[in-house]
Design a protein that fits this description.
Elements lengths: L7 H5 L7 E5 L5 E6 L4 H10 L1
Antiparallel strand pairs: 1-2
């Protein structure tokens, strides 16, 4: 979780509202993003595959 008073990170990742989530690989690549609730099973599958 990241709180950014300046909203620079929101702008950089095209986040327009909350809740929002982005799953990153260990090397910093964004694997997937979600607006609103995100599917736990999909998150776990992506994390296991990366």
């Amino acid at each position: 979780m990241l709180w950014d008073d300046s909203f620079e990170s929101w702008n950089a990742f095209n986040v327009t509202g909350q809740p929002a989530a982005i799953l990153f690989a260990a090397d910093g690549r964004a694997l997937q993003g979600w607006s609103g609730p995100f599917p736990e099973a999909e998150v776990l599958a992506l994390a296991a595959a990366s």
